[in-house]
Design goal:
heterodimer, A: alpha/beta, Rossmann fold, 6-stranded mixed sheet, 9 helices, B: alpha/beta, 10-stranded mixed sheet, binds adenosine-5'-triphosphate, binds magnesium ion
């Protein structure tokens, strides 16, 4: 599904690289988790995958379903089935979540050669999902993310994930700042969407999410590189003994 | 005499970006170019006007001649345009086939009806579907007024200005020039001398007008100025929502539009006046376009009355327009909600005046300016609290949005407080469409252009939501069309 080879990226106009040769490969139907210390480049990686213009890719290859995507615009990547649940979702005054999601879903359906959903069908789907992710229905009548609490923003990201049903969902710390109920909702959302042709890349700091969502593979990202890859037990190791050993190893490199 | 020829909307002049740029081949009846006492008399005679109205026009004409000689056009606005030659303009152009006014839609020139179809206002359809009574002003003569019968039963008068002069002379005599006197300003004075038609509405005491009244203005003949006049009176306890839409075909030469709108509310009455202004903005290179010099003013004459202006200004090469409210009655309310867009070489100098005279009067101003391309957008607003206005309250909010880095946004507030009990708040902001917002939307599969559009209409929503539903949809669409090419 996703193949990343020796990816180097930096902030536009900055010399120092943030991603320094990152490689990983996610097969169809797999759930991968990425853990790593603050500032190691997890969000940068997630954003580079979607083509955020703040970053430049200096070298390396990224293919999504065997297509080189690095030249594609963010919307083109999204239409092909990539999705990022943001760590810090943007606030957009005056744009209602309903309207925004309808436009997003219509765009995706049009790309897939399908007709847009009727307003009625869309509304039904929307209302169902709003209930499923436990967002206050009054909230989605307001402006997109504007004045939403941290947790509400994350639930709103989950709402979009569930509505848009991407092929590859990247969740950047969607579990951070969530109460226990919300955490369960995120986990249930992901688990219900798990399927042989859908993959997940979950950025998290906490083992506890992985108690609910069993990852197939866990990666440790330190200083812009994957320094360790293993099974679910790797998350336990990190939880117990921290990143110290990996950081030392990275520095020693 | 000018014979208009058809220009398709894919014409190279505008690259097809002005969607309403077509010309209708209807025979026109012109008075000769230029302005003189004779022309004023001719206009009045063509319309079979009573002596008192001719007198009023002539007073205005002579005052205008004096103004033109002594001061010329007002120069305080932040707009630049070439000298207007007032003798190179037709002051009267009536479609020939309607010199005898049509009695019903069946009498209306089919070509003209086709034009309205193209504009998206099929009269027959709209009156049924939307319950909107439209008074369509084609160039200067009203061509059709629908729905009048139903309104008549309620005692509501809604007709062209000329008809009102004939059938309701006392109302016209009483209110014409009562808010905007003939001597008010250069352009209003010019209008007073040569106005050719417009709309009139009167809502009798205690009546809530059940449908939205609408006038659609469209300029057609080349080299004609458009000088229409609107007068709306809401008697005690009456309510009306009034819509005004405008388009003009594109021309290489500029067209002058100098309209006057007067609103009057008596005790407990309310007028909600909504405008979508989409006159031809000129080509991308700044050629042609409408010069829109408009005087709009309302007076809350009665206690507890309310006047609310909402405008979405996307068109015109130059917009000079300050819909205002005189808050004379105690406890009266004035509102101004505006989105003005200036793209390419457009210049908009627009805002409002709120004059507080009565006690406990309240005004709200929400002015949003979008500048794109080399567009220049100025908000110019005045809030004046007179000594008699105990406990007056004003809230002003001015927001500017910049698209690109060659455009400009300017805010010029004038505040005059002559009563210490007044409470005034002023907020202002300038922003750009942020990269974070754009990326967020695009990462969901929304194209760059659509994402810009969504952010910009979202930003304008406080104003757009004040519009009646159908108009709100059109406004969103217009913002999109007007910004084409400015984003991405
Ligand atoms: N747009 C940017 N401008 C400047 N520096 C940036 C930018 N984006 C990322 N960085 C820097 O790159 C490094 C990696 O940041 P990133 O947000 O990817 O870390 P992270 O692993 O997601 O951390 P956290 O766990 O705190 O979310 C940090 O030092 C950060 O300051
Ligand atoms: Mg991060």
């Amino acid at each position: 599904m996703l193949q990343v080879t020796d990816l180097h990226a930096s902030v536009v106009d900055a010399d120092e690289e943030i991603l320094k040769g990152l490689s990983l490969s996610i097969g169809a139907g797999e759930v991968h988790a990425i853990m790593g210390p603050n500032g190691s480049g997890k969000s940068t990686f997630a954003n580079v995958l979607l083509g955020r213009p703040d970053y430049v890719v200096n070298s390396g290859v990224v293919t999504f379903e065997d297509e080189d995507i690095l030249e594609l615009f963010p919307d083109q990547r999204a239409l092909r089935g990539m999705f990022l649940a943001f760590q810090y979702p943007a606030e957009i005054p005056g744009v209602r979540p309903w309207q925004f999601l309808k436009a997003a879903l219509d765009a995706r359906r049009e790309y897939a050669g399908e007709k847009p959903l009727s307003v009625r069908d869309f509304s039904k789907l929307f209302d169902d999902k709003v209930e499923a992710v436990g967002i206050d229905p009054d909230l989605v009548k307001r402006s997109l993310n504007e004045g939403f609490s941290g947790g509400e923003k994350k639930r709103n990201e989950m709402l979009q994930l569930e509505m848009l049903e991407p092929r590859l969902a990247i969740l950047d710390e969607t579990d951070s700042g969530l109460d226990v109920d919300a955490l369960r909702i995120v986990a249930e959302g992901v688990n219900s969407l798990r399927s042989p042709d859908r993959s997940f890349l979950i950025v998290t700091h906490y083992q506890r999410l992985l108690n609910y969502i069993k990852p197939d593979v866990v990666h440790i990202l330190v200083d812009g590189r994957i320094v360790e890859t293993g099974g679910p037990e790797l998350a336990m190791t990190v939880e117990n003994s921290g990143y110290e050993q990996y950081i030392k190893a990275a520095v020693a490199d | 005499m000018v014979t208009p020829n058809s220009i398709s909307r894919e014409s190279d002049l505008s690259g097809g970006e002005y969607k309403w740029g077509f010309v209708t081949e209807v025979e026109q009846d012109f008075a000769p170019k230029g302005l003189s006492e004779d022309i004023v008399r001719l206009i009045s005679a063509k319309k079979d006007e009573p002596e008192w109205l001719l007198e009023w026009r002539l007073k205005a004409y002579h005052h205008w001649v004096k103004m033109a000689k002594e001061q010329g056009e007002p120069e305080w606005a932040k707009i630049r345009y070439p000298q207007i030659d007032y003798n190179d303009i037709y002051y009267y152009a009536a479609p020939k086939s309607s010199t005898e006014a049509p009695k019903s839609l069946a009498d209306v020139d089919p070509e003209m009806l086709a034009t309205f179809e193209k504009l998206g206002i099929p009269l027959q359809e709209r009156e049924k579907l939307a319950g909107v009574a439209i008074d369509a002003v084609f160039d200067s003569v009203s061509v059709a007024t629908t729905y009048t019968e139903q309104l008549e039963k309620l005692g509501i008068i809604f007709c062209s200005f000329s008809e009102a002069v004939k059938n309701h002379p006392n109302l016209i005599k009483k209110y014409l020039g009562s808010v905007v006197p003939y001597s008010d300003n250069f352009f209003a004075t010019l209008n007073s001398a040569v106005f050719s038609d417009g709309s009139f509405a009167y809502i009798p005491p205690g009546v809530r007008c059940p449908i939205e009244l609408m006038t659609y203005f469209r300029m057609n003949a080349e080299g004609t100025g458009q000088f229409e006049r609107t007068l709306i009176v809401a008697d005690k306890g009456a309510y009306v929502s009034y819509l005004e839409g405008c388009t003009a075909p594109f021309r290489k030469t500029s067209q002058l539009h100098a309209a006057v709108v007067e609103l009057v509310t008596l005790d407990d009455a309310e007028i909600k006046y909504s405008t979508i202004q989409n006159w031809f903005p000129g080509s991308k290179e700044g050629e042609g376009g409408v010069y829109n010099f408009v005087t709009k003013r309302g007076i809350c004459r009665g206690v507890n009355s309310k006047i609310s202006w909402t405008q979405v200004e996307t068109g015109s090469a130059i917009t000079w327009k300050y819909p205002s409210v005189i808050l004379q009655g105690d406890n009266s309310t004035g509102e101004f909600y505006s989105v003005a867009l200036a793209n390419n070489h457009q210049q908009a100098d627009t805002g409002t005046k709120m004059i507080h005279i009565g006690k406990n009067t309240k005004s709200t101003i929400v002015a949003k300016g979008i500048s794109a391309g080399q567009g220049q957008n100025t908000y110019r607003g005045q809030v004046k609290i007179m000594p008699s206005a105990e406990n007056a309250v004003n809230h002003t909010q001015c927001d500017s949005l910049l698209v690109g880095d060659q455009c400009g946004a300017h805010t010029v507030p004038y505040i005059e407080v002559r009563n210490p009990t007044a409470r005034l708040e002023h907020e202002a902001s300038t922003s750009k469409v942020s990269d974070d917002q754009l990326f967020y939307l695009r990462s969901r599969g929304i194209s760059e252009e659509e994402a810009h559009h969504m952010i910009i209409t979202g930003w304008s929503r406080e104003v757009i939501k004040e519009l009646p539903f159908e108009f709100a949809m059109e406004a969103g669409q217009l913002l999109k069309v007007s910004l084409e090419g400015a984003v991405g």
